[in-house]
Design brief:
It holds the Pfam family Abhydrolase_1. By secondary structure, the chain is α/β, with parallel strands linked by helices. The chain is built from ten helices and eight strands. Helix 8 links the parallel strand 7 and strand 8.
């Protein structure tokens, strides 16, 4: 395994922390960041399972980890996040890679494949925040749409609210990270997620919410091979989203019984095996 290379790049005044690790040769995997309540440590278990056989490229999304934390919503527009992902590929000398995206990072991976097809050899989307049908709003979509209103209560999705974050941001982070991890997570995984979440600020997360919308995803889909993975106990994104996306992309769809929103953490070996199988079929 090659020595990890860690550095920073700068785009329009925003520093992005990134690294290349893993094998010196093989199909590169770009493990994209999810929402800014996480860091690239979200992929630690996958790095452990995949690094011996694949070059791995990771970065901290703007707003998290070792990257800068702008508070202007424009800084978190999807084209900016896509451009960050491509800039990291450039900085690591990676011509094409399989993009692995989880949750909101799945949307960034999807759009990167649409906008830069020459850079994307394939997609692995884990519980992606991609609604191609635009059906009834989910609790997350409702929370985003009512983010600046009065909190409807003191618990659950009522915590996903600007006023609630001003009152008790740590409480929100604990609730959200534990909800995302699900019942399978152990104490170490919960502690790591909480620590990463508390490393950002309510102002940063509010800026990311302002940059998002509930509109259904339209336009031409990417044309590269894809794999969709989703836990059937996901309390953040519905499995119906992934089923519809898999049908649109004509992609295999793997449902993990009992897994929550983050199977790459709580079902690390199983998720890594699915990625490896996809890569072998891709080859």
């Amino acid at each position: 395994m090659a020595t990890p290379q860690r550095a920073n790049l700068e785009r329009h005044g925003v520093r992005i922390a990134y690294e290349r690790t893993g094998a010196a040769e093989g199909t590169p995997l770009a493990l994209l960041p999810a929402w800014m309540i996480t860091t690239r440590r979200l992929w630690a278990a996958q790095v452990e399972h995949l690094a011996d056989r694949h070059p791995l490229i990771l970065h901290d999304a703007r707003g998290s980890g070792g990257s800068d934390r702008p508070t202007d919503p424009a800084a978190y527009a999807l084209p900016e996040l896509v451009a960050d992902a491509v800039a990291v590929l450039d900085a690591t000398g990676t011509g094409r890679a399989v993009l692995v995206g989880h949750s909101f990072g799945g949307l960034v991976a999807y759009l990167t494949a649409v906008l830069h097809p020459d850079r994307v050899a394939g997609l692995v989307l884990i519980a992606p925040t991609i609604d191609v049908a635009g059906g009834e709003p989910t609790p997350l979509q409702t929370a985003i749409a009512t983010f600046d209103g009065e909190p409807a209560g003191t618990g659950g999705w009522s915590r996903y609210n600007r006023g609630a974050w001003r009152t008790d941001f740590p409480g929100f982070v604990r609730w959200f990270t534990e909800t995302a991890l699900g019942a399978e997570a152990d104490g170490e995984q919960r502690a790591a997620a909480l620590l990463d979440g508390l490393g950002t600020t309510p102002e940063v997360l509010a800026a990311t919410v302002a940059a998002r919308s509930r509109k259904a995803l339209t336009g031409r889909p990417p044309r590269c091979p894809a794999l969709i993975v989703h836990g059937d106990r996901d309390a953040i994104n519905p499995t119906a989203w992934s089923a519809a996306l898999a049908a649109l992309l004509d992609a295999p769809y793997e449902v993990l019984p009992g897994a929550g929103h983050t199977p790459q953490v709580t079902r690390a070996a199983e998720t890594a095996h699915l990625i490896e199988t996809f890569l072998k079929e891709l080859a």
